[in-house]
Amino acid sequence: GQRTSLDGMREPFHLNRAQEIDPMVMATFYPLTIHQPCLGERLERAVASAKAQGIRVKLIAYPRSPYGQARLGARQEQELAEATRQLAARLGLELLGSTAQWSDAEFTDHAHLNARGRARFMRELGTWLELPR
Fold this sequence. Notes:
Order of helices and strands: HHEHEH
Strand content: 5-15%
Radius of gyration: 17 Å
Oligomer: single chain
Largest sheet: 2 strands, parallel
Strand order of the largest sheet: 1-2
Mean pLDDT: 81
Helix content: 40-55%
Shape: globular
Number of domains: 1
């Protein structure tokens, strides 16, 4: 049979390929254009509705590879972090963002975690969710 994750979803095997970083392709992604959520009002209503039902909603800022961070640059990294903090504050959400260093070996490209990176991310997420609030 095909491997599945703990929640029964199939593993994204296409993300387990060897790391592929094509500098020409990366040049089309960076610098990033940072936008507000395209469905901001709908997102706000969804979060409010979930909270009204007693559902805990969290905002997760996924890790970026060192290669992606270098392409982003310090100024844009700060802009992105600030935009994420503002979104969390506006929605009244707790923000999970890893401050640990990640290795390019945990990514399949500049932004997508491979199996090793996903396993580490899930461990960190589990630890964070277990912390008393």
